[in-house]
From TrEMBL:
Its EC number is 1.2.-.-. InterPro entries: 2-oxoacid:Fd_oxidoreductase (IPR051457), THDP-binding (IPR029061), TPP_enzyme_TPP-bd (IPR011766). It comes from the Bacteria. This is 2-oxoglutarate oxidoreductase subunit KorB. It comes from Sporotomaculum syntrophicum. Keywords: Oxidoreductase. GO terms for biological process: cellular respiration. Residues 52-209 form the Thiamine pyrophosphate enzyme TPP-binding domain.
Length: 255
C-alpha cells in the first residue's frame, strides 16, 4: 500500500514540494495557513503572491498563483503597484521582520498610511535568518545572535519593534491588523482569512504578523524552539486582533 500523503492546500504547487525551508522552520506553517485561506476563500484564480529577499524568497514558486519575488524590503510597493493596476486581483506581500521592519519599513509605513488595499503577511522570527542570524528589529532583549553574542542590550539597541501596534496606530478606518503565532495555526489562519476578506471587501490595508521559528539560527532543538515561541516571544509580542473593521471596533490584544 502506498504511504498516505500529507494533505496540501490546493493552491500549493505540489511539484515544488517538499519545500526548501529547514526542518522546523516557521515559514512553511505560515504559508500553509495562507494556502488554506486562499482555498477556503476561493481566490486562487485572482490571487497574486509577492515574496521578499530573506528566507521568504524560498517560496517564490510555492503557490499555483501568479507570483513575484522582489528586492529586499520592496515587496510591499511592488504588490501595491500590481494591485493599483489590476484592482480585481487579491494581492499578498509576504516578508520577514528584517524586510518589513528594517530595510522595507518606509514602504510598510507609507502603504499603511495610504490605506492601500493589499494584504501584508510578515513572519517574525526575531533574526535576519537568511544571512546567518544577525540581530533584527524584533530580536528579544537578552537574545544571543551573530551580532549580539552576549545577548541584545536594550540600552544601545532599543526594544523589539512592535509592528502590528505601529500599523494599528497609523492606519485609517478600514484597516485590519492582527498578530498570530505558529503555535496556534487555526487562529493564525482565521486572521489571514480576515485580512484577505478585508481586501476583498475593499476596506483597505490588512496586516498580519505571525510569530515564527528559526531553529537553525536560534540553534535550538524542537523543545527549546517551541518554548521560545510560546513563552519568550509572547512576553513582548501579544497575540490578538488590534483592528477589525468587520467587528466595527478596535480590539485590544489578549494579554
Ligand atoms: C538591499 C539588500 N540589503 C541587504 C541584503 C542582504 N540580506 C539578504 S536576506 C537579509 C535578511 C533577511 O531577514 P528577514 O527579512 O528577517 O527574513 P528571514 O530570512 O529572517 O526570513 C539581508 C540583510 C540584500 N539581499 N539586499
Ligand atoms: S534559516 Fe531559519 S528562517 Fe531560514 S529556512 Fe532555515 S529555519 Fe527557516
Amino acid at each position: 500500500m502506498p504511504e498516505p500523503q500529507p494533505v496540501m492546500p490546493r493552491s500549493w504547487r505540489t511539484e515544488t514540494k517538499p519545500h526548501k525551508f529547514c526542518p522546523g522552520c516557521g515559514h512553511g506553517l505560515v504559508l500553509k495557513c495562507l494556502g488554506e485561506a486562499i482555498d477556503e476563500l476561493g481566490i486562487q484564480d485572482r490571487a497574486i503572491y509577492g515574496c521578499d529577499i530573506g528566507c521568504s524568497l524560498l517560496s517564490y514558486n510555492f503557490f499555483n498563483v501568479d507570483s513575484v519575488q522582489t528586492h529586499h524590503g520592496r515587496t510591499t510597493p511592488v504588490v501595491t503597484g500590481i494591485k493599483r493596476a489590476n484592482p480585481d486581483t487579491i494581492c499578498i506581500a509576504y516578508m520577514g521582520d528584517g524586510g518589513g521592519y528594517a530595510i522595507g519599513s518606509q514602504h510598510l509605513v507609507n502603504s499603511a498610511g495610504r490605506n492601500e488595499n493589499i494584504t501584508v503577511i510578515l513572519a517574525n522570527n526575531t533574526v535576519y535568518a537568511m544571512t546567518g542570524g544577525q540581530m533584527a528589529p524584533t530580536t528579544m532583549p537578552g537574545q544571543k545572535t551573530e551580532t549580539t553574542p552576549y545577548g541584545r542590550e536594550t540600552g544601545p539597541t532599543g526594544y523589539p519593534m512592535l509592528g502590528p501596534e505601529m500599523v494599528a496606530a497609523i492606519t485609517q478606518e478600514g484597516a485590519y491588523v492582527a498578530r498570530g503565532t505558529i503555535a496556534n495555526l487555526r487562529q493564525l489562519k482565521s486572521y489571514i482569512k480576515k485580512a484577505l476578506e478585508n481586501q476583498m471587501n475593499g476596506r483597505g490595508f490588512s496586516f498580519v504578523e505571525a510569530l515564527a521559528a528559526c531553529p537553525t539560527n536560534w540553534r535550538t532543538n524542537a523543545k527549546e524552539t517551541w518554548r521560545f515561541v510560546e513563552e519568550v516571544m509572547t512576553q513582548h509580542f501579544k497575540i490578538g486582533e488590534l483592528k477589525n473593521p468587520a467587528a466595527e471596533k478596535i480590539v485590544k490584544p489578549a494579554h
